[in-house]
C-alpha cells in the first residue's frame, strides 16, 4: 500500500466500456474541485521539507520499481517536474506497504516507514538527505491495518504522526509521533473508515493550520476531504466529486510545483500515466496535468 488512497482524478470521468476487468474511459476537461474554503491562514506545526529526500530543498517522489525491488527517489524540480531518478535502496520487494513519514525523528530530514509482507512488522527508516538508514522495528501486527498514512501532525503537538485504519472494525487510529522515530499509545480518531478506499495524508490542504486527509468512498468511488482539527477528530467529510475508479496509487508529495499549496499525485491504472493534482489551498485542486509515463510497474510511497 502506498501513501494512499489508490484513486485520483485526471478529469471528470465518463465511463464508456469495460472489458476483462479493465475500465475504459473518456476523460473530459476537469473543472476546479474544491471541498472547503480555508477559515484561517496558518502554518501546520510540522516543518516544511516532509518530502525532500535528497536534501536540495525541493519535494520529491519516492517509489519502488516492482520488477526488481529497487527503491528510487525522483527529485522534484520545484515546478511540477523531475530531475534524473536515483536508486537509494535495494531489496524493498519484501515490503507490502511503503509510506512517506515526514520527519518522524525530528532531525530535519524526511523519513520512511515500511511493513514487511511476511510478518506485519512495521519498520522506520531514517532519512539523511542523501539516503536512508537501516530499518528499525517500531511495531508488530500492522498487517491488521488496511491503510497506513503518515507524515503530518494530526494531534497538534508539532510532531509527525501515523494514522491507520483497522480492517476488522473500520476504526481510524492515531499513533502520536514522539519525535524520535517511534510512536506513543494510539487513540481512536475516527470510525467507519472501512467504507473508505484507503487514504492519502495530503497535509494542510485547506490551509487552516491543521493537517487533512482525503479518501475514496468504497460504495460510490467519490473522493472526500476530511478537514483536520489538530486535536482528536476530523471534521465531517466533504465530497470533491466522483469517477475516481480509473485511478490508483495516490500519494502526497508536498508542494511539488512550488506554488505554496499542498499537492498529490495519482496513477491512471489503465495507462500508467502519472498525474499531478495541484492543490488550490481551499481543500481541493484546480488542475491535474500528466507529469510522466510508465508508472504502471511502480509502487509509490
Automatic annotation (TrEMBL):
InterPro entries to which the protein is assigned, alphabetical: FG-GAP, Integrin_alpha_N
SUPFAM superfamilies, alphabetized: Integrin alpha N-terminal domain
Keyword flag Nucleotide-binding: no
Keywords for the protein's UniProt record, in alphabetical order: Signal
A Pfam family recorded for this sequence: FG-GAP_3
Signal peptide bounds: 1-35
PANTHER family: PROPROTEIN CONVERTASE P (PTHR44103:SF1)
Protein name, entry field: VCBS repeat protein
Organism: Glycomyces algeriensis
Amino acid at each position: 500500500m502506498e501513501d494512499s488512497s489508490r484513486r485520483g482524478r485526471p478529469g471528470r470521468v465518463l465511463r464508456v466500456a469495460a472489458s476483462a476487468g479493465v475500465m475504459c474511459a473518456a476523460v473530459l476537461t476537469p473543472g476546479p474541485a474544491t471541498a472547503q474554503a480555508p477559515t484561517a491562514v496558518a502554518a501546520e506545526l510540522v516543518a516544511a521539507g516532509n518530502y525532500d529526500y535528497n536534501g536540495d530543498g525541493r519535494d520529491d517522489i519516492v517509489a519502488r520499481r516492482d520488477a526488481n525491488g529497487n527503491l528510487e527517489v525522483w527529485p522534484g524540480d520545484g515546478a511540477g517536474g523531475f530531475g534524473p531518478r536515483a536508486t537509494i535502496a535495494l531489496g524493498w520487494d519484501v515490503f507490502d506497504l511503503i509510506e512517506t513519514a515526514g520527519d518522524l525523528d525530528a532531525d530535519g530530514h524526511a523519513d520512511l516507514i515500511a511493513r514487511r509482507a511476511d510478518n506485519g512488522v512495521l519498520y522506520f527508516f531514517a532519512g539523511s538527505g542523501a539516503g536512508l538508514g537501516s530499518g528499525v522495528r517500531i511495531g508488530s501486527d500492522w498487517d491488521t491495518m488496511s491503510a497506513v498514512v503518515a507524515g503530518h501532525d494530526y494531534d497538534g503537538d508539532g510532531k509527525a504522526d501515523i494514522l491507520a485504519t483497522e480492517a476488522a472494525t473500520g476504526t481510524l487510529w492515531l499513533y502520536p509521533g514522539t519525535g524520535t522515530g517511534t510512536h506513543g499509545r494510539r487513540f481512536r480518531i475516527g470510525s467507519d473508515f472501512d467504507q473508505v478506499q484507503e487514504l492519502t495524508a495530503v497535509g494542510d490542504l485547506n490551509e487552516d493550520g491543521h493537517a487533512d486527509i482525503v479518501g475514496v468512498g468504497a460504495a460510490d468511488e467519490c473522493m472526500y476531504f476530511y478537514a483536520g482539527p489538530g486535536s482528536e477528530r476530523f471534521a465531517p467529510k466533504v465530497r470533491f466529486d466522483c469517477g475516481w475508479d480509473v485511478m490508483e496509487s495516490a500519494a502526497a508529495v508536498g508542494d511539488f510545483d512550488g506554488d505554496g499549496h499542498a499537492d498529490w499525485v495519482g496513477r491512471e491504472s489503465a495507462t500508467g500515466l502519472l498525474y499531478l493534482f495541484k492543490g488550490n489551498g481551499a481543500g481541493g485542486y484546480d488542475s491535474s496535468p500528466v507529469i510522466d509515463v510508465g508508472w504502471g510497474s511502480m509502487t509509490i510511497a
